[in-house]
C-alpha cells in the first residue's frame, strides 16, 4: 500500500488544505516523503458527518458481524507486512523488536475485543419482568441494554505508533462498542498512521460496512484537534498524550453546547516503593530490573518508573549505587521527536538543578536531533514533601528520582503527597514487609489504577482484569481504563425499554434472546 | 425526634453562622419554626474532612455490615413515624398519600441497595490468573475490583423531599458503593431533611460506623453548594434540580484543581408520541391517562409529560379536545415553593404568549402564595421546528404542549430536533403503528434514557433494569442512571492488583473468595 499524504475520509482520499508537514526521522532529522497538507475544518466536518451517518447501521451490527470486522482489521494490519514496521522505525526511532511486539499487541487487542463483542457481556442486558398483580400498582416489563454513545474521536499517541494510535486500544474499544471512529493521527508518525488507516478502510470495505465507520485526519496543529472535539457529531474522546494536551481537550469538551466525556491518559510518575525486606534480600536484582524498565524505549512509556521511594539505610544505598551504575552505563537512545527530546532534556536539567536534589548518574550522551541521555537523581522525603508538585512532575523519558525516607512514617507521607498515578509498585518480602505494605496499600489504592508487587510497571497486560487508568492527573476520569476489555465501557450508555412490544425490541432484549447473550433477569 | 435547626456534622449538632432562614408552608406562606442559620465554609470543611476520615474504614466494610447499615437507615426512617409525614406535608404542600408512598419508595430503595451490596456484583471482580509458562513473556496474576471514588456530595431535590433527598437514591447508591455522604438539604424542606438526617445518624451509631459516614448541611444560598463541590475531600456529586443549578455545579467541578464527576439530573420535557393507530383505538383513554400524569403532584416531576406529539387529523383532535377538557377541569394545586410557582406561571405565560402557540385550556386558578394552574397549549411541527429550544424548554409544573404534525416525516423531524430527555413515550397499536414506531425508536434511543410504550413516564420504577438518565441536558452524564441499582456504578472506580500476595489482597479478590461474590475468572 502506498503512503500518499492524503486524508482518509470514509472511502475517499482527500488532500488537506492546512499547513504542510512531513514526518521527520528522529535519528537523522531527515524529512521523510511524502508531504501532507493538514486537514482543515471542512474535512473534520465531512469525517464527523460521515461517522454520524454510519452510526445508525454500525451500532446495530450483530455480534458476529462486528467481531468479524475487528478481526478483519487485525488481518489487514498484518497484511501490510514489513512495510509497516519499516515506516514506523523511520518515523519513531523505535527499534524493530519493539515495533514487531507492538504490532502483535495491536492485533491481539483487536482480536480480544472481537471475543468481547461475541461474549455479549458488554450489552449489560437486564430484564425486570412485568408484575401485573403487584399492589398497589403493577410493574411493567423493563429491559435495559447498553448502546454506544455515538461517534468517537481518537487521538493517536506519540509513543505507541501502533498500540495507542490509529488502530490502538481506544479505536478497538470504540469500534467494539459500536461507535464509528474519527482518528487524528499523531503528526510524528503520519505515514505509519496512513498505512494502518488504509488497513482499517480495507476491513470496512471487506465487511460491507458504512464507509463512515472510520476516517483518519492528519495535521500538525492544535486547531484540528479542537475542531474535532468541538464537532457536534462527536460524542466522546479518547486521548493519550501530555497533560497540557489532555487538559486542553477536557476544557474544549466541557465548553461545548452539549458537553462530552473525554478519556485522556496524561501523565504519571509511577512510584515504586522499595520496602526494607525486599531491599535486604535482593537490592541487586531490583536495581537491574529497574534500570531495564526505566531505559527501555528511551523511557517513553506512560508507566515508566520515574519515582523510587525507599527507607534510608545501607540496603537502599546498595540499590542506589547499582542503579546509578546501570543508568550511567545506559547507551544513548533516540527519542520519538526533537520536541520530546528537548522537553526531556529541560526536565532532567530542572530536576538535577533543583536545590533539594542530588544528581547521581547520566547515561551516554547521544547524537542526532532527538537524543535521550538517561538520568538518575536522589532527594530526601523532606525535600520532596516541601515541593511534591515540582519533584513529583513527570519527566517523559528515561529519568528517575530516588526519594530517601528516614522512617516508615515519611514513606507513608510521600505516598499521601503523590498526585494521581497510573501505577504504584511495591517491592516487598513476604513476612518482613507485610505490615508496611498493608499500611501503604489503602493509600495507594486511592492514588493509582494499578498496584503491583515485585515487578515493574512497564509492560501493561491487555486482559480482562487490567486497569490502565487512575485518578487525575494520571487520567481525566478514574472510573475507566484505556487498556483491557473494560475499556469498552467508556463508550457505552444504558437505555431502558418499558413495555415495548417484543417485535420492536432490539435483538439483545427480545424474549427469545436470539443473540444468546447473558442477561440478568428477575 | 426534635427539629432543632442545627447542622448535623457527623455525630454533632452545630449551629451555622450563615444567613438565617425558615421553612415556609407553601399553602399559607407561613414561616415554620425553628429558624436555621445556614452552614458556613467552616462547617463544609468539617463535614467533608469527617467524610474523608470515615472513608478509610467505611469503604472496607464487609458486605453484611454495609447492607445492615442501609437496612438500619430504612428502619430509622420508619421509626420517625407520622411526624416525618406531617412535617413534609407542611413544608412541601404535597398530600399525605403521595408522601406516604414516597416514604415507602425511599425505604424500599435502601433495602434494594442492601440486596445489591450483599450480591456483590457491584464489586465487578475479575481475575486473570498468572500464566507463568507463556512465551515470550509470562503473565502475572491480575485481579480487579471496584472501589468507591471517595466522599460524595448529594444535593436534595425540591420535588421529592424523601426519595430524592437526604436518604434518597443518590445517598443510598453512594452509601452502597462505600462512599461517605455529605448532603446539602434543599432549603425548601429543612425540617424534613433534619428528621431524615437524624435517622441516618442513628443508624450510623447503631451500626458502630465512623461518624463521618454522614453529615447534613443546610443553607439558603449557592455559596454553600459551591463550597461543598469545591472541597478537595469531595470526589463526586449527585444532584437533582434545575438546569441552571446543575450547570453551575458542573462548571465548579470542572474548574477544581482535581476535577470530579457530577451526576446532575436537570430537565426534561418527556415527549409523548401519539401514533395514529393508538389514537384511533383509544384517544379517550390516552387523554385521561395523560391528564392524570400531567397534573399529579402539580406536575412537579422530572418525568412529567410536557410535550405531546401526534399526527394531525380527527383522532388527534379528539385527543386534544378531551385533554383540554381534563386540564380545564383540573383543580388548583399548591406548588412546592413560591419561587417554583412564579417560574411556572412565567413559563406558561411565555409559552401561551408565543406567536406560534394556541392556548387550549387552563385549570382552576389557585389561592395562596404558590398556586399551580394547569395549562395546555398546541402548536404545529413547523412552528416547533422553527424554535425547538423555546418551545421544547421544560416548564416545571402541570403544563404541556401538543405538537401537531402534518406527516410522519414531520413527526420524525420533531423527534430529531429534541434535546436530550429522561424519557420518550410511544402510544402505539400493535400492527398499525409498527412501521412508524420502528422508525422512531432509533431516533429516540439517542435522545432519551428510557423509552416506554402505552404508558406515562411519571412513576419511575426502582429496579435493576430502570434508567433514569439520558443525554444532556436531561442529565450531565448519559452514561448513568440516578434511579435503580445501576446507580451504584456512578460512585465506583476500578483498581487492579498485579502479583499482590494473597494475604495483602482485599477479601473480594482473595484466592478463597471469602465474600462468596461472583468473579469473572480466566
TrEMBL record, chains A, B:
* InterPro entries assigned to the protein according to its UniProt record, in alphabetical order: Ald_DH/histidinol_DH, Ald_DH_C, Ald_DH_N, Aldehyde_DH_dom, Aldehyde_DH_Superfamily, ALDH_KGSADH
The UniProt similarity line reads: Belongs to the aldehyde dehydrogenase family.
Documented EC number(s): 1.2.1.26
Domain Aldehyde dehydrogenase intervals = 19-425
Catalytic activity of the protein: 2,5-dioxopentanoate + NADP(+) + H2O = 2-oxoglutarate + NADPH + 2 H(+); 2,5-dioxopentanoate + NAD(+) + H2O = 2-oxoglutarate + NADH + 2 H(+)
Q: Which named protein is this?
A: 2,5-dioxovalerate dehydrogenase
A GO molecular function term, named singly, is: 2,5-dioxovalerate dehydrogenase (NADP+) activity
Which species is this record about? Answer: Castellaniella defragrans (strain DSM 12143 / CCUG 39792 / 65Phen)
**Where is coiled-coil annotated?**
none
Keyword terms, alphabetized: Oxidoreductase
